[in-house]
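Reopening this one. Same input as before:
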Amino acid sequence: EVQLVESGGGLVQPGGSLRLSCTASGFTFSTHAMIWVRQVSGKGREWVSAINSGGSRTDYTDSTKGRFTISRDNAKNTLYLQMNSLKPEDTAVYYCANIPEWKYYSGTYYYSEDYDIWGQGTQVTVSS
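Same output, byte for byte:
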């Protein structure tokens, strides 16, 4: 079964940094594209970033581009999200998800129906 374990969240001040990790098992990590999404309590999920299977291509939402960096280590079956210059509006539970490689190239990962959430997420709180 697919298992995705997110970690690295916490409480930080505006302008601070966090690095999230997502450890994967139960599927062939190296052949799947991966995404990060986030969910504010009481609201729907929002796509944040995507990376292709080999880690050579990345995409970001406009609100995070230049501040967040997605990366992966296929040898460790681990996905990362480096978050810098954090803002209060980044506060959310962050989840990772796997998608078929073709969805990365076709751009079909933005909507919640395009992927499944398997992990419990990790809470990121940005507050003064």
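So the earlier flakiness isn't reproducible anymore. For the record, The longest helix spans residues 101-106.
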